[in-house]
Amino acid sequence: MADREWTDLELYVLQEHIEDFQDGIISRRELLRRVTYMTGSLAATMALLPALGCNVDQPRGGAPSTATAAPSPAALATAAATPYATPPAARSADGVTVRPDDPRIALVQVDVKGPDGASLGGYLARPKAEGRYPGVLVVQENRGVTPHIQDVVRRAATAGFAAITIDLLARDGGVDKVDPSQYSAKLSARQPDALGADLRAALDTLRAQSFVRADSLGAVGFCFGGGLVWNLVTAGAPLKAAAPFYGPAPQNAPALAATKIAVHAVYAELDTRITGSKDALEAELKKSGTPYQITVYPGVNHAFHNDTGERYNADQSQKAWISTVEWFRKHLA
C-alpha cells in the first residue's frame, strides 16, 4: 500500500468504503471520490484499492442481504411490548423513533469544552421525571451526529438514562458543515488520543450535571464509535459499563485483562472483518474477572442497528438494543 503508512483508523474507514461499494450502497464513482479524498490523487486511489482487495471494475451483487423490507411480526411484537423506545420495526427515512418533544424525555442545553477549550457542542437528553440517573455516552458512527444518533440518545433517555453525544468534527462544523463524502476521511485523520480526550470531556460534562449519578457512567458506540468505546475501556475511562457495537479491536487489547468495566460487545455474523477479532478480545476479558458478554447476532452485517441504512435488520437490532439497555441497567445500578 505503498507510498505512505495508513493508521488503523484510516484503514478501517477505507475498508468501510470498500464494503459499501461491494454491497451496492455506494457507486463506483462515489467510492473513488471518497478514497481519493484520503489519498490525494486518483492515481494513488487506483493503486491502493487493488492492494486492499478491491477491484472497482468487477461486477457486484445486488442489495445487501440484511436489509429489512417490511416489518416482521416479531419486530412489531417487540416494539409493542417494551416500555422504552427500541429500534423501529422497519427501516426509516429520517431515523426518528423518539421525537424531541416526546413527553417522556427532556432535552438539555450543554456545551462540551475540549481539552483545548474548543466548543464541541453536545446533544443531551434525560428522563422527564425529576431524579438522578445513570449517564450514558453515545459515540457516533463515522458519519457524524446524524438524526439517527440523536435518536439513539433520546431512546436511551426513555430507558432511564441521561445520555449525551458530541460530534467528533465539531471544530470543523460537524455533520452540518462537513461534506458527507469527506466526513469519514477527516475523522480518521484525527489522532486516537485526541478523539479519546474529546469523549472524556463529554463524560466530564455529563457527570457534572445535577441529575446524573457521577459514579454510574456507561458508553455505547457504533462502527467507528464502537472502536472508540473499546479504546475508552482499554484507556481506563471512568466507566462502569460499555457496549461497543461491531467496533474494530483496540490496539492495546492486552489492557482488557485488567479492566474493571463490564463490557457488552455486539457483533454481526456476516461482518467477518470485525467479528474475527472477538476471540482475542474475549481471551483478554476473561483474565479480568469482570463481567462481560459477547453476542454475535445471526444473519446480519455491519451497521445492522442503524435503521436509516441499507443493512438494517429490525429483529436483531431490537434484540441487541434491549440487551444493551438491560446490561446498563444491571451494571450502572
Brief synopsis:
The protein is an alpha/beta fold and 333 residues long. It is built from eleven helices and eight strands.
SSE order and pairing:
Elements: H1 8-22, H2 28-39, H3 42-51, H4 73-81, E1 105-108, E2 123-127, E3 133-139, H5 147-158, E4 162-165, H6 180-188, H7 192-207, E5 212-222, H8 224-234, E6 241-245, E7 262-268, H9 272-275, H10 278-288, E8 292-297, H11 314-331
Parallel strand pairs: 3-4, 3-5, 5-6, 6-7, 7-8
Antiparallel strand pairs: 1-2, 2-4
Helix pairs in contact: 1-2, 2-3, 2-6
Describe this structure in words.
With 333 residues, the chain is an alpha/beta fold. It is 38% helix and 15% strand. The chain has 11 helices and 8 strands. It has helices spanning 8-22, 28-39, 42-51, 73-81, 147-158, 180-188, 192-207, 224-234, 272-275, 278-288, 314-331; strands at 105-108, 123-127, 133-139, 162-165, 212-222, 241-245, 262-268, 292-297. The chain has an 8-stranded mixed beta sheet with strand order 1-2-4-3-5-6-7-8, with helices on both faces. Helix 1 (8-22) runs antiparallel to helix 2 and helix 2 (28-39) runs parallel beside helix 6 (180-188). The N and C termini lie far apart (48 Å).
